[in-house]
């Protein structure tokens, strides 16, 4: 395995018989998945997703891959292949197409329907190319063959990319449910055929590589869902991902069996379920779905609401129900079913919702007290099957934090793959496949690009640091009127504090330090207001740390009087 | 069960034959546990802990119970009983004793040793009263009998409080490990005896009430710990709570069996282990413990480090090792064992550590991939045993979020206790036991008191809201020089932005709105600088929201020229 801490170093020119792989996202994080393949001067992009921020990235809406590696090379991009329709695989496409609008977007029927709906909101009409399992498509020097894979959204695809320099099999996100609702299983026959032909590089989903055994079947949730519908005395509120068509299919089936009506609540849920129904992915019994308003006329035990917000998103319907900030007042007799996974990092938000709903008297059924969720990703047992069926020449674990990538690599090595042919690398690390062997040859920029309040890339790491300081220490503005002649204060400075957790008058004790700083500046003949502001800020910061062990963000204002 | 949303209403005078219970913490949260019992004008406090902040409470060190209910009544407090030595039960005692220093502190030998060491750091010498299981102690009108309970720290006690108005059995934190390392099991014989005598109010730990079945035995971790010590090729770094004496005992035993030396790293770990060893709770084979510096002279496969930081605390040894910011460079060949639970809310921080250590090449063993932790709290199965053995007349679930309290109440009701005798209430709700039956009679202040940067209670909810706005939206200071005569700007205002994620020049487009606000004020004859500042802030905020959907914290400065 490779050095996980390489220097940023531009890679050498790719040999003509070489294939280059650079992930601009998805290595070292769960999200913003994006891989760029290069061969004979052309580039093929696989997925372009977003990453959701953590608590140390306040005010950030989503995080994009850094496209600067593609700068000056947009014309070489022959297409972007989307493996499936989840945000962490398609959410970056609008920003990609703003760089070059006519890049062909390749994907399955449902995936293209979802990205097209998303792009419509951005007023972008993409050039699409719909494919299905079994299809082959030439994109410049890349010959792509698409393979059915099973995941927590229908119509997922893996892609086998053949080039003159060798072949790459990229799984996308997948698992191996042997009894999926749509009978569309991950096509191990195709994997076996590729294995016989020879796979030079296997790029494989790592999300669940740490989890031993096999991921349970989606259908195994039916008993727990059935129990909710059989026993709930009043309304049932189900919260799930707006893209989890099969989970919602199970809920619809249970509702129909128990003579309940169903209303979808929340913009993305309504939109996606309409798409899924129109395209035939969601099968809806006639008369089952009603408008949310029509529910008022039904007795509670005939009502089912299906909404978003299962991750505790504060603006989503479920969170607002928990805060009684929603027209639907959940209370005694109601049952809330959280039919989705808990994405790491959302524990507190989800727990707040469970507590809020429970306080109002609702019964909450969730993965902590019932079998109401299975993962969408292959566990270690399934991954080992893949390694043994495919027997790839080289392996590059993708989609996961470092721990997941490393666990996946360990599985590959246990099946007999030479450790020197297993590359565990970060985003931006350049991996070249030449003469059938992978090697790390450099590193390119692959930092976080923050979308914050609609603006892309304006929030920098420095500004996030400022935001964290502001949130932990607050801020104090120091307004100093300075005599332009003498460089001295004409009156005591004003102090305006916010979020400081202390009386702003405290800072009056720092005035001698400010006076001293100004006197020093005057002694050195310095009168530039900007320079005086820097010195005042430094003096106040030092004083606050020395006297109070505090480090507020100091905003200095010098006005010459 | 009671109304979970009562109005804040002062309770009536307690009848002479009544017993009042008010929890000032621990109901609706996991932490700052504190119950106040009142009878015949005297008060008995059970536990006084801290709560650790969540991500929406930035810059907060710990959260205390609000003591204002005890204001003017400190002289009535006959003692504070500490059930065990965890921070969420003893961390508030220094602040309590700052209110009245001579309140007797009652607890077991280890508990008193831990609180005395903590108080020493606050330069407080407490008046202590050491008790053990089986002891009885009269504290004013409260006759206390102490009972052994098993928990994730040795020497835990439950307390049976008998008064003329009835009896209260408070479990503290407990579980029912039938094979604990110290053979000190939860004394169900005593519980049975109390049941025969009659327990009027059972206050019972709810932390694990949602978890079905029985909590595994501490000794059942031995195989996983043994596997680590048998197979680790290099150093072993174990991270655990500094108070988990039995977990660390198991690590010491494994180290001794495999001829490794052990060094403790981290101030609280060194301090607590010395206390535990001195008092005989930790049994240390001669020559096993060495100074951390002495480890350099040993081969890696003879080294064990035991440190704090298992919750991802950024300043603790483990986090610094993950960032290579610690003298001990963990890397290839090293094994890190996280031998503790993951407290909800710390998932991201712990995951960052696992990823960091894995990137450096270490193998990380944690509760996600090995059986290296058991909980310290009774699961649903154990709680049901208690209800059936004790058959209490009334039940008040304590220690937990609302979901835990409610789950515990449901268990009580399933064992046959009348729902009207099960009170699920929030902090501050007044519960009176009169003539053998509980009733909610009022509510007192029980808000959060924040300790932030050493200051107690200075950070308010408003200021936390400011901090969150600052972190998500940043701040802009507007400096306006205003002509005292005309009320108009003498020059364009200055804008100083921090954490805004955008160019501060953007705000220049808001100048017309500022001019308009000033003109309006002048028209109304308003010249007070403070009022002008409010108007400028409002104008800029509205402009930012209207034009940019942003809501930065605006700090206005008006200077009359």
Automatic annotation (TrEMBL), chains A, B:
<dbReference type="GO" id="GO:0004521">
    <property type="term" value="F:RNA endonuclease activity"/>
</dbReference>
<comment type="similarity">
    <text>Belongs to the metallo-beta-lactamase superfamily. RNA-metabolizing metallo-beta-lactamase-like family. Bacterial RNase J subfamily.</text>
</comment>
<feature type="domain" description="Metallo-beta-lactamase">
    <location>
        <begin position="31"/>
        <end position="225"/>
    </location>
</feature>
<dbReference type="Pfam" id="PF00753">
    <property type="entry name" value="Lactamase_B"/>
</dbReference>
<dbReference type="GO" id="GO:0004534">
    <property type="term" value="F:5'-3' RNA exonuclease activity"/>
</dbReference>
<dbReference type="GO" id="GO:0005737">
    <property type="term" value="C:cytoplasm"/>
</dbReference>
<keyword id="KW-0963">Cytoplasm</keyword>
<keyword id="KW-0694">RNA-binding</keyword>
<dbReference type="InterPro" id="IPR041636">
    <property type="entry name" value="RNase_J_C"/>
</dbReference>
<keyword id="KW-0479">Metal-binding</keyword>
<keyword id="KW-0106">Calcium</keyword>
<dbReference type="GO" id="GO:0006364">
    <property type="term" value="P:rRNA processing"/>
</dbReference>
<comment type="subunit">
    <text>Homodimer, may be a subunit of the RNA degradosome.</text>
</comment>
<dbReference type="Pfam" id="PF07521">
    <property type="entry name" value="RMMBL"/>
</dbReference>
<keyword id="KW-0269">Exonuclease</keyword>
<comment type="function">
    <text>An RNase that has 5'-3' exonuclease and possibly endonuclease activity. Involved in maturation of rRNA and in some organisms also mRNA maturation and/or decay.</text>
</comment>
<feature type="binding site">
    <location>
        <position position="86"/>
    </location>
    <ligand>
        <name>Zn(2+)</name>
    </ligand>
</feature>
<dbReference type="InterPro" id="IPR036866">
    <property type="entry name" value="RibonucZ/Hydroxyglut_hydro"/>
</dbReference>
<feature type="active site" description="Proton donor">
    <location>
        <position position="205"/>
    </location>
</feature>
<feature type="active site" description="Proton acceptor">
    <location>
        <position position="377"/>
    </location>
</feature>
<feature type="binding site">
    <location>
        <position position="151"/>
    </location>
    <ligand>
        <name>Zn(2+)</name>
    </ligand>
</feature>
<dbReference type="GO" id="GO:0003723">
    <property type="term" value="F:RNA binding"/>
</dbReference>
<keyword id="KW-0540">Nuclease</keyword>
<dbReference type="InterPro" id="IPR001279">
    <property type="entry name" value="Metallo-B-lactamas"/>
</dbReference>
<feature type="binding site">
    <location>
        <begin position="373"/>
        <end position="377"/>
    </location>
    <ligand>
        <name>substrate</name>
    </ligand>
</feature>
<dbReference type="InterPro" id="IPR055132">
    <property type="entry name" value="RNase_J_b_CASP"/>
</dbReference>
<keyword id="KW-0255">Endonuclease</keyword>
<feature type="binding site">
    <location>
        <position position="84"/>
    </location>
    <ligand>
        <name>Zn(2+)</name>
    </ligand>
</feature>
<feature type="binding site">
    <location>
        <position position="61"/>
    </location>
    <ligand>
        <name>Ca(2+)</name>
    </ligand>
</feature>
<feature type="binding site">
    <location>
        <begin position="242"/>
        <end position="244"/>
    </location>
    <ligand>
        <name>substrate</name>
    </ligand>
</feature>
<dbReference type="GO" id="GO:0008270">
    <property type="term" value="F:zinc ion binding"/>
</dbReference>
<feature type="binding site">
    <location>
        <position position="89"/>
    </location>
    <ligand>
        <name>Zn(2+)</name>
    </ligand>
</feature>
<dbReference type="Pfam" id="PF17770">
    <property type="entry name" value="RNase_J_C"/>
</dbReference>
<keyword id="KW-0862">Zinc</keyword>
<feature type="binding site">
    <location>
        <position position="59"/>
    </location>
    <ligand>
        <name>Ca(2+)</name>
    </ligand>
</feature>
<dbReference type="Pfam" id="PF22505">
    <property type="entry name" value="RNase_J_b_CASP"/>
</dbReference>
<keyword id="KW-0698">rRNA processing</keyword>
<feature type="binding site">
    <location>
        <position position="173"/>
    </location>
    <ligand>
        <name>Zn(2+)</name>
    </ligand>
</feature>
<dbReference type="InterPro" id="IPR042173">
    <property type="entry name" value="RNase_J_2"/>
</dbReference>
<feature type="binding site">
    <location>
        <position position="88"/>
    </location>
    <ligand>
        <name>Zn(2+)</name>
    </ligand>
</feature>
<protein>
    <recommendedName>
        <fullName>Ribonuclease J</fullName>
        <ecNumber>3.1.-.-</ecNumber>
    </recommendedName>
</protein>
<feature type="binding site">
    <location>
        <position position="399"/>
    </location>
    <ligand>
        <name>Zn(2+)</name>
    </ligand>
</feature>
